[in-house]
Amino acid sequence: MYFSSWLSQLYRGLSRPIRRTTQPIWGSLSRSLMLSSQRRNPEYSSFVVRTNTCGELRSSHLGQEVTLCGWIQYRRQNTFLVLRDFHGLVQVIIPQDESAASVRKILCEAPMESVVQVSGTVISRPAGQENPKMPTGEIEIKVKTAELLNACKKLPFEIKDFMKKTEALRLQYRYLDLRSFQMQYNLRLRSQMVMKMREYLCNLHGFVDIETPTLFKRTPGGAKEFLVPSREPGKFYSLPQSPQQFKQLLMVGGLDRYFQVARCYRDEGSRPDRQPEFTQIDIEMSFVDQTGIQNLIEGLLQYSWPNDKAPVVVPFPSMTFAEALATYGTDKPDTRFGMKKYLKRKDIESIRKFSADHFDQEILPVFLNTNRNWNSPVANFIMESKRPELIRLMETQEEDVVLLTAGEHNKACSLLGKLRLECADLLETRGVVLRDPTLFSFLWIVDFPLFLPKEENPRELESAHHPFTAPHPSDIHLLYTEPKKVRSQHYDLVLNGNEIGGGSIRIHNAELQRYILATLLKEDVKLLSHMLQALDYGAPPHGGIALGLDRLICLVTGSPSIRDVIAFPKSFRGHDLMSNTPDSIPPEELKPYHIQVSWPTDSRAAKTH
Amino acid sequence: MYFSSWLSQLYRGLSRPIRRTTQPIWGSLSRSLMLSSQRRNPEYSSFVVRTNTCGELRSSHLGQEVTLCGWIQYRRQNTFLVLRDFHGLVQVIIPQDESAASVRKILCEAPMESVVQVSGTVISRPAGQENPKMPTGEIEIKVKTAELLNACKKLPFEIKDFMKKTEALRLQYRYLDLRSFQMQYNLRLRSQMVMKMREYLCNLHGFVDIETPTLFKRTPGGAKEFLVPSREPGKFYSLPQSPQQFKQLLMVGGLDRYFQVARCYRDEGSRPDRQPEFTQIDIEMSFVDQTGIQNLIEGLLQYSWPNDKAPVVVPFPSMTFAEALATYGTDKPDTRFGMKKYLKRKDIESIRKFSADHFDQEILPVFLNTNRNWNSPVANFIMESKRPELIRLMETQEEDVVLLTAGEHNKACSLLGKLRLECADLLETRGVVLRDPTLFSFLWIVDFPLFLPKEENPRELESAHHPFTAPHPSDIHLLYTEPKKVRSQHYDLVLNGNEIGGGSIRIHNAELQRYILATLLKEDVKLLSHMLQALDYGAPPHGGIALGLDRLICLVTGSPSIRDVIAFPKSFRGHDLMSNTPDSIPPEELKPYHIQVSWPTDSRAAKTH
After folding, report:
1. Closest CB to A175 among B204, B249, B579
2. Best of A41, A147, A150, A212 to disrupt the B interface by mutation (most B CBs within 10 Å)?
3. Tens digits of per-residue pLDDT, B485-529?
4. H or E element: which one contains B556?
5. From B86, B209, B578, residue closest to A255, measured CB to CB
6. How far is CA A344 from CA A11, A17, A340, A348, in A?
7. Which residues of B338-370 are buried (b: 16+ CB within 10 A; e: fewer)?
C-alpha cells in the first residue's frame, strides 16, 4: 500500500502575481519587426517598387516622398484611409481637390482589402490628431498618385483580430487568416528563432546542416508510418517519424556534428493538436555524453530566445524519472506552480468524483485543522501514534488539504499527477493564476527505464523510447539478469508541463545492439542489418536530441494550438480544409503504383462516385 | 528553308588555358574547415571530451596537452600512427617504453578505422621529418594515454580517396563513403552555402522562412506525383513537386517575402542523375517585377559563393528564349566556350553520322579555304553570287568550318545545339579544354513562350511552365487572338549549360487566371478553386523563383553527379542500396489505408514471397 503526499507540498508553492498578456492590436504590428530589427536591420524594401513599408514611417521621415503598397484596412468618409502591410498601419489622406479626381476615385471606390499602391509625401498630423496607440500615429501620407493593384471581393470574414471566427473558417480561408497580426507575428517569430538556432549550431559550434531522405524503409514495429507506393509491384517507401537512423549513420560517416530542421511524419489518425507532418530540430554529435548534449541545448535555447520574452535561465534543473513520477505523478511536470490552499469542501467532492469516474480510483482527502486533527474518513484507519510521523513525512502545515490514494505505484502516482492538474484548472477558473504563460520553466527528466513491458503482452519487453538508446553505464550488468531494471541514457526536456524534446546517448557497440534487438526485444534484425553493420565499421560513441519545433514555438508565443504556429496546418482529422486534401484519385493514376482501393463493404456506394 | 551558321561564330570563341583541378588528397582535408573559418571561427570541440580536432594542430600548439578522438588511418612499424577526424590528419607517436605497455598494446592492436581517444603532448617533429604536404606536418603527438572507443571489422573498401570503388558499393556502404575527403567537403560546403543564403535572405532582406506542407492535394495534370494513401477509403495525399501553390497563397496572406529550403518530390521512374526527392531554394515576393527577382538572385549567389571559387560577376547576361534557340540551339546554353578550329576531316564524318543516327538529319559541312572557295557538297546548290553575302552573315574567317542543316526551325536549331556539344566532347577527348570546370558562366533566359502545343494533341495548348505564369505585358492582347504567340514572364537561370533555376511573375488577377485555366488550358478548375478564390480576395502582384540546390552544389563542387552532394541519395532506379528501400510491406499494414497490391499477371509468383 502506497501513500502519496506530494500534493500537500505543492500546495505551498508560490503563486506570483501575473502580468496579463493582452491581446495584441493591429496598431502594434511593428512589434513583429522589432524582434528582428533589434539584432539586424533587414532591408524590407529592396528589389521592389515601394520605398518604405507602411509600418516603419515615423516623424523622422517627414517631408520624404514615399511609395507604399498595401491593403485597404479602413476608410472614413472618403477622407482618410488606413493602409496595411505586414509591418503595420499608416494613415493616408485622400486628396479632395478637383485635379486629383482620378486618385480620389481609385481610393474611394476600391473595396476593403483591395491592394493599392500610393505615392506621396510624409506629413505631420494636425496638432491634436496624433494617435499615440499607433506607431505611425504622428504622421500621415499626402497622396499624389494611386494605383489599384487588385480589387477585393466581399470577404467571408473581416481581417481584424477582434473578430471571432471558427477555426474551420480560419483554416478554409487560411490565406486570409494569415493576414492577422497574430499569425504574422507567430510565423515571423518562428522564422527568426530558427535562424538564431542555425547561427548557434552552424556558425558558433561547427554543426553541419544535412538533409536526410524522407522516402525511406519502414522501421521495425513502425506502425504510424505513412506509406508511399513505388512503381515496383508490392514495394513501398515509408515516410519516417524521425531521421534517427540517418543521423546515427552520419556519425558513423565521421560527420561529427549534424543538425537539421527535419520534416517528420506520423500517422496517428485523429489526435487533437497533433499534425501528420511536423518539424523537429534534429541534432547528433560524436564523442559526447549526456551532459554535453544538455549544455548544448541550454545554450541553444538561451541564444535563440526572443528578446521580448522572459529570459531563459541556465542550467535547467534536472530530475530523475522516478522522482518526477513520485513527486508530480508524470514524466513532464509543470514546475511553474505548486498549489495554494484555495480548494473548498465542495471542490473535494468534485475531485473525488473525477478520479472515480475517469480512473476508477478512490481518493481520500485529509483536512488538517489547527490542532492537527485529521478530519478525514481515513482517520480511523490510521493509528493515532502514526499520524505525527505521517504529518512530518508529508511536510503538512495547518489548513493544508492532503489527498491520499492507494494502489500500484505507477497508477496511483499518475492519478495524483492528473488530479494536480485538475486542481490547477479548478483554481484557475476561480481566478487564481497558477500557470503564468509568460514564465518558462524548463526541466530535464533523466534516468528513464530502458524497457517497458509490452502493453499487449506484459511478459515481453519493448523499448521505452527506441532500440538504439544506450543503457545507463551503472546498469549494463543488469541487461543479462534483470533487464526491466535497466535505466537508460535517455533524457527529456520539459517546458511548462510539455515534453518539448527528447534524446539519448546511443549504443555504438554492435554486439550490445544485436543482443538488445534480437534477444531482448525479439525484433527482426534483418530490417536493421545496415545499422548493425555500420556499428561494426568504426562507429564513434555518439548521442543526440530532437526538439519539437511546433510545440516549442506554440509555448513561446503562448498560442492555444500548434495550428497557430504552422502556416498551413491540417485539421485534427488530417484534412487541409482549404484545398480539400486528401482527395480522390482516378483509378488510372493508381495503376503505375500497382495498387487498388479496397473499399469497405459498407461504403461500396462511394466507389461509384 | 533555314540555314544556321552560328557554329562558325562559336569556333572563334576563346579557349583559355585551364587550371587543372587536381584531386584533393587527405592531407588537405583542412580546406573543408577554411571555407567557414575565413568567415567565423566555430568551436569544434565544445561540449565534448576532445580538446582539439586532429586537423587543427600546428606549431602554435607546441607543448599543449591535448585530447583527440579519431579513426586510425594508418600505422607504420608499430611506431607511428596517423589519426583522422573530419578536420584532418595528425601523426601520433606510439610510446615504446615498458611503462606504456598498455597504451602501446591498444594502439598497435586496434584494426585500421577503429575509433580511439588519445591524450598527450604536441611536440615538434624531429628536424628533417616535417611533412610540408600535411597541414599538421610540423608537429606530432607524444601519447600518454589511449582508449579504444570502438574496434573496426574488416572493411569492404579502404577509406582512401585514390581507391576506386563502384558507385553501387559506395551507396551500399554510404556511411563509409561519407568518411572520404570529397564527401565531407561537399556536404560541408553545401551546409555553409545554404547558411549564407539564409543570412542574405532572412537577415539582410527580411524574408520569412516558412515551412509548407508536403502532404497535399494532387495538382491538375500532376502526373509524376507520389501518392500517400490516407486512412479514408479512396482518399490520397500527393507529395508535391514544389510549394508553388503555397508560396503564392503566402503572398495573398500578406507574408510579403517568403523563402524555404524546400523538399520536393518527383516520380520520374528511372532517369539518370535525377532523385525522387530533391531540394530547392524556394522564393516568393510581393510587389516585385522580373528585374527585382533577378537582382535578388544575383545578390544571393554572389553573397553565398564559396571564397575558394572564382567569384561570381554580376549582373548576369540575359538572352531571350528565341535568341538562345537560334544562336545555341538550346534554352540552356553553356556560354563558357565558343569553338576553335580543331576539327579534322574525319571528325566531320563522325558528326554527320551522329546527326543522321540520332536525329535523322542531314548535315552539310562547308570548309572555307584561303581563297574563300566553298569546299562542300552544298557548294553547287548555292549561287556563286550569294556566297559572299552568306559568308558575311556567318562572319566566317578562313580555315573555318561551317555546318549547315535545313529543316523546321526548332528542330534544326536543337540539332545544331546538340552537335555543338558533341563537337566540344570530341575536341575535349583530343585534349582541347573548352569547358573550364573552375569557370562559372551564369545566364538569364527570358521571354519564353507562355504555351506549347500538347505533345499528344498539338492543336491543344499546355503551359510551357505552369498555369500560374503571367503573360508578358506586351502580349496580353494576343491571349484572345493568337495565344500561341504569347510570351511569358518566366525566366530561367542557366549555369554552364545547366538550368539551375526558374521562376516567373505570377498571375494575380482571378479573371485572367480563370480564362487561362478554363478556356485556354481546358483544366478542371475545381481542383484549383481555392487558388482562384484566393486571387479574388486581394492578392498582391507577386513573383518568385526556385533554385535547384542539388544541381547548383554539384556544379560549384565540380562533382560528376548530384549523388555526390546528397548524403543519402537514391540510385538511378530510386533505390536506397544501403537499407534496401523501397521494401515489401505485410498485407495487414496496408489494411488501415484501404489499399491492396495489384500484382501484374506475369509476376504473380512474387506475391507468394
Report:
1. B249
2. A150
3. 999 999 999 999 999 999 999 999 999 999 999 999 999 888 899
4. helix B549-557
5. B86
6. 13, 21, 12, 7
7. bbbebbeeebbeebbebbeeebebebbbbbbee
- Residue in chain A closest to B508 (alpha carbons) equals A150
* Between residues A6 and A171, the one the model is more confident about: A171
B183/A117 CB distance under 8 A: no
| Upstream peptide bond of A471 is cis (omega within 30 degrees of 0) | no
Q: What is the pLDDT of residue B401?
A: 77
Residue A161 CB neighbours (<10 A): 14
pLDDT at residue B16 in the model: 34
Size of interface A-B (CB pairs under 8 A): 410
Beta-ladder partners of A548: A280
Residues A478, B557: Cα–Cα separation, whole Å: 50
Contact indicator for A586, B213 with CB cutoff of 8 Å: no
Q: Which residues of A touch B194 (CB under 8 A)?
A: 209
H or E stretch at A544 = strand A542-548
Residue A320 forms beta bridges with which residues? A446
Indicate the SS3 state at residue B16: coil
Look at the block and give the residue holding cell 546548290. Answer: B381
Give the gap in angstroms from C-alpha B516 to the nearest C-alpha of chain A: 18
Tell me the nearest-neighbour CA distance from A425 into chain B, angstroms.
34
Q: Give the C-alpha separation, A176 to B250, whole Å.
A: 9
Cβ atoms of A59 and A29 closer than 8 Å: no
Beta strand residue intervals within A155-265, DSSP E: 208-209, 226-229, 235-239, 257-265
- Cross-chain CB nearest to A153 (options B265, B295, B537): B537
Q: Calculate the CA dihedral of residues B31, B36, B41, B46 and round it to 10 degrees.
A: -80
B368 grid coordinates = 572555307
For residue B201, give the chain A residue with the closest CA: A42
Residues of A in contact with B170 (CB under 8 A): none
For the cut 50, the answer to whether the pLDDT of residue A454 exceeds it is yes
Residue A426 and residue A348 in contact, taking contact as beta carbons nearer than 8 Å: no
C-alpha cell at B597: 497490391
Q: How far is B483 from chain A (nearest CA, A)?
A: 24
Q: Report the pLDDT value the prediction gives residue A348, as an integer from 0 to 100.
A: 77
What residues in A contact B42, CB-CB < 8 Å? Answer: 202-206
Mean pLDDT of B293-303: 98
CA B236, distance to chain mean position in Å, is 31
Give the number of other CB atoms < 10 A from CB of residue B324.
24
A591 contacts B600? CB cut-off 8 A:
no
Angle at B373 between CA B372 and CA B377, to 5 degrees: 135
What percentage of chain B's residues is helix, strand, coil (to nearest 5)?
35, 25, 45
Residue B179 corresponds to which cell in the numbers above? 568518411
**Cβ of B212 and A174 within 8 Å?**
no
Among B44, B205, B597, beta carbon nearest to A234: B597
Specify whether the CB–CB gap between A324 and A430 falls below 8 A: no
Q: How far is A82 from chain B (nearest CA, A)?
A: 15
| pLDDT of B327 above 70 | yes
The Cα-based distances of B347 to A197, B352, B430 in angstroms read 58, 9, 11
Closest-CA residue of A relative to B157 is A537
Q: Encode pLDDT of B329-349 as tens digits.
A: 999 999 998 765 766 677 777
pTM for this one? Answer: 0.91
Q: What is the ipTM of this complex?
A: 0.91
Q: What is the CA radius of gyration of chain B?
A: 30
pLDDT on residue B360: 76
Q: With contacts defined as CB-CB under 8 Å, which chain A residues touch B85?
A: 254, 256
